[in-house]
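> forwarded from #structure-qc
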């Protein structure tokens, strides 16, 4: 089963989006130091674009994110532990997710969004890699049964 099919059906999609947003908030809360402050400030600016902007963006990019993760997920299925494989392959998982956001960022009309992304992109891979285990937990929750 492809992630893009199983996680985005109408019964699950809103819950997946909400859990992903909660995961992002938890990841941000765990960051400290100067880079943590920069991330939190940037996220606050993005939240200020319009009410509900973050859930909107998450919902918009999830299909492409899951499609990007499908090859890694399929390899994990072949090995018998797709969730564990996503975590073990966090470098590839992060690259797959960032390929989606990089493409989306090219076409963003709002300068605050594009500028914020460009400023933080250099350190993004490590932050995404750090979030892969939590993302894998979200995926696991909705792929069981």
């Amino acid at each position: 089963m492809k992630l893009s099919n199983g996680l985005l059906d109408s019964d699950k999609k809103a819950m997946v989006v909400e859990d992903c947003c909660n995961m992002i908030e938890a990841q941000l809360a765990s960051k400290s130091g100067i880079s943590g402050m920069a991330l939190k400030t940037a996220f606050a600016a993005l939240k200020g674009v319009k009410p509900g902007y973050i859930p909107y963006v998450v919902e918009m990019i999830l299909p492409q994110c899951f499609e990007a993760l499908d090859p890694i997920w399929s390899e994990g299925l072949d090995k018998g532990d797709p969730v564990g494989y996503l975590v073990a392959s966090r470098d590839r998982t992060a690259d797959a997710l960032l390929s989606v956001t990089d493409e989306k960022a090219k076409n963003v009309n709002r300068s605050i969004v594009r500028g914020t992304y460009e400023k933080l992109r250099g350190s993004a891979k490590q932050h995404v890699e750090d979030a892969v285990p939590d993302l894998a937990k979200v995926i696991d929750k909705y792929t069981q049964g």
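QC bot note: The mean pLDDT is 90. The helical segments are 3-6, 13-30, 33-47, 53-79, 82-88, 90-106, 111-143.
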